[in-house]
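[job 4471] stage=fold_predict status=RUNNING
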Amino acid sequence: MQQNKSVTEFIMIGLTQDPINQKVVFIIFFILYTGTMLGNLLIIVTIKCSQTLGSPMYFFLFYLSFADACFSTSIAPKLMVDVLSSKKVISYRDCMTQVFALHLFGCMEVLVLLLMALDRYVAICKPLRYPTVMRRQVCNILIIFAWIGSFIHATTQNALVLQLPFCGPNLIDHYCCDLQPLLKLACMDTYIINLQLVSNSGVVCSSSLFLLTISYMLILRSLRKYNVEARKKALSTCTSHIIVVIMSLVPCIFIYTRPPVTFPVDKMVTIFYTITTPFLNPFIYTLRNSDVKNAMRKLWSTKITSELR
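[job 4471] inference complete, writing structure tokens
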């Protein structure tokens, strides 16, 4: 494997060079990151402590919230520090670690969304087989495979990036270390490696969106045989999931399924799925889900009552 000999650190251009705008950006991302951590941790604690949220859907939601919190943490803290720094520097090792974390938790989020779609498909289309197919032992095995798949994906991406020799410019036109910005700095023809990167991340995102689309077409078709009340409840849950899927996968497909060409909107698209989506996911799942809201009220009312005693 070809090792990096000359570049030991990278300098981020970031989002803006204007001091006033930098402070505004810091405040915005501080609010988003704080909201992301509080919202996802609230869901994690609620599902862990509640006795009414023991179904597979909430089992997978627990891991989606965990992945969202870790995904955002791999980007947001460093971004906020850099916004207020005069020199936005990241070491070569930290840059590679950020790439690995970004793809580990990003892939985990995608795979958990697939598992949640599988859960809804079995529950709605195969209701008699649901208790057997989606029993807890099976869910545990599926989550283990999701972690293994995410680790393989992230390791593969990192292995490709580690082959790149960086011997000249070290200025990254981005606010985080990711594949496309790093390809532009490599001292070699990156056409083949870019095809490999696209075939990895691009195929993961595109195939996941395809499978999710097919599954929800089947789900919507099966809903016709349900009564109005059951159909309304199922549609509410499915709609929340579809919104999260679109917010998570469409930006990823835009970034990872194209040649290494830079567009002006790239940074904003990356911000949307790395910072904004993890922030919005808890609100989407709680505001549209009466079971989660009731469990949260019960959890906090129990806590307050115990403290008063």
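[job 4471] summary: The first strand starts at residue 9 and ends at 12.
[job 4471] exit 0
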